Amino acid sequence: MSSMGKGSPPAGDGPEPYIPRPRRRDVRSDSAINLNGRPLGTLADFWAWAFTDLRDNTFRGIFAEWLVAQLLGLPMSQRGGWDCYDLTAGDKRIEVKCSSYLQPWAQRRQTLPVYSRLFSQCWDANSDTFRPPDYNADIYVFCLQACQDAEAWDALDLTQWQFWVLPREVLAHNKTKTLSQAGLVRLARHAYDFTQPMRADDLSARLWPILGPAERKSAPKDESSA
């Protein structure tokens, strides 16, 4: 007779239970990193060491997500590394894509900007499973660091950025999984009659009519006009 108690499932029967996830801690740039009470530095020290080279494709892409949110005045929580989309404006899901002509490695010629993974799997953190591939956002914002002069290149100079937008329906209709810069411009012109890219200083005014009503942060006060 089995020694297993009444009602206990046999070994290997049914899904294995999930273990608890670590609690996400609220930290700030000045959050201290200590060893036995002795300060080793702050989170800002770690960030400056690890993530400030915005030439890097990954870090520049994350910066673009933050930049679009700031320009639109969207309320922001902590970023999730495996989220299915990047931002929300009301009930609209926004995916931010980023590219650049110049890279941090030696180049014989400039990179042709490409925006990939438009049609992709989405990971569900609650079940540790992937959903079938799909277009996982309602609006796609494409950000190009458009400077082609290596000496002048500066991700923090917002005049060097250009922006386009496409709705999910256009990408799905064309079954677009990857877009070249020329393809993006052509589709954006067709979808919204955009003959010129959006700039950082007019992104909000041109994009909010597409997004519709949603909660925004208060616009920063222009101290120069005081």
Considering DSSP H and I runs of 4 or more, what fraction of the residues is helical? 10-25%
Instruction: Work out the radius of gyration.
Output: 22 Å
Instruction: Let me know the number of strands.
Output: 10
Please report the number of helical segments.
5
Highlighted features:
single chain; 226 residues; alpha+beta; four-stranded mixed β-sheet; 5 helices; 22% strand; globular; disordered N terminus; disordered C terminus
Question: Care to give the gist of this entry?
Answer:
With 226 residues, the chain is of the alpha+beta class. It has helices at 43-50, 57-72, 168-174, 181-192, 203-211, and strands spanning 32-35, 38-42, 87-89, 92-100, 114-115, 120-124, 129-134, 139-145, 161-167, 179-180.
Overview of the structural elements:
By secondary structure, the chain is α+β, with helices and mostly antiparallel strands. The protein has a domain at 78-213. Helices cover 23% and strands 22% of the residues. The protein has 5 helices and 10 strands; from the N terminus they run ββααβββββββαβαα. The strands form 4 sheets. The chain has a 4-stranded mixed β-sheet with strand order 3-4-8-9. A two-stranded antiparallel sheet has the order 1-2. The longest helix is centred in the N-terminal third of the chain and has 16 residues, at 57-72. It is globular. The termini are far apart.
Please outline the helices and strands.
Layout: E1 32-35, E2 38-42, H1 43-50, H2 57-72, E3 87-89, E4 92-100, E5 114-115, E6 120-124, E7 129-134, E8 139-145, E9 161-167, H3 168-174, E10 179-180, H4 181-192, H5 203-211
Parallel strand pairs: 4-8
Antiparallel strand pairs: 1-2, 3-4, 5-10, 6-7, 8-9
